[in-house]
């Protein structure tokens, strides 16, 4: 599906052929997501599953809501966690210790002190290594990327808030809009349509690679923590289900990152969907997830020094 988006931008194959492949790919992936994967999940968990045959618009609508919600939750947490991780303001000295109030009632005071000192030493060593790594060329490179993405994440939260407050959905893709603003500000002659096509192609590729990589890393950590020999089959099927919904939802949201002339076939093949609903739903869930993550990290960051002072 992502290849078809790139084909739309590059104009590979004829319009009729691209439309046909869009239809085939969507029906196949929806068949897998709605029927095949749930059937096998039910096979390993329960004896059978009840299936319904829906139109492509209804199927995409239901899959899209779940997928967009998942993407918004992950993006909201990532938008807060990225600045928290990379910006030097958040480098802190001192152990991040879990709430041990119940355990402290059962253990000896000296053993508790010894444990806290050990954790503090480990944390200080980790912080020291991180600071030393940040002084290397590779560390400076990743720090630069970290600051860049931190600014982008803050901007994303701000724009999501604006979109919700003013109930708006962008009609122009971000690349074309950004180039138009820059050209008008600098007052130079520039082929906006030509360069927006190539930059959009690069941007879509980056979005595809980074989003899939981030999703796979997150899901791998989660499923590794809960996996067992008895549940491995179900976990693989659930992973396939989540990945499929994520891909379909990515197409729904990525459509806005494409120039208008490349959205035609994507819009036609997806049917009469309310695209503005999915973008607004993403903004709402994204903002809720981001604000919840900010509150969680703030409380965790504030709680650690207080515990450290009680030792």
Automatic annotation (TrEMBL):
The protein's name: Golgi pH regulator
Topology relative to the membrane: Multi-pass membrane protein
GO cellular component, one term: Golgi cisterna membrane
Domain Golgi pH regulator conserved: 55-111
One Pfam assignment: ABA_GPCR
Record-level Gene Ontology MF annotations: voltage-gated monoatomic anion channel activity
GO biological process, one term: intracellular pH reduction
Keyword field: Membrane, Transmembrane, Transmembrane helix
Locations listed in the record: Membrane
Similarity comment: family membership: Belongs to the Golgi pH regulator (TC 1.A.38) family.
Reaction(s) this enzyme catalyzes, per UniProt: iodide(out) = iodide(in); bromide(in) = bromide(out); fluoride(in) = fluoride(out)
Chief localisation class: membrane
InterPro entries, alphabetized: ABA_GPCR_dom (IPR025969), Golgi_pH-regulator_cons_dom (IPR022535), GPHR/GTG (IPR015672)
Keyword Transmembrane helix: yes
Transmembrane spans: 24-43, 63-84, 144-166, 199-224, 236-258, 278-300
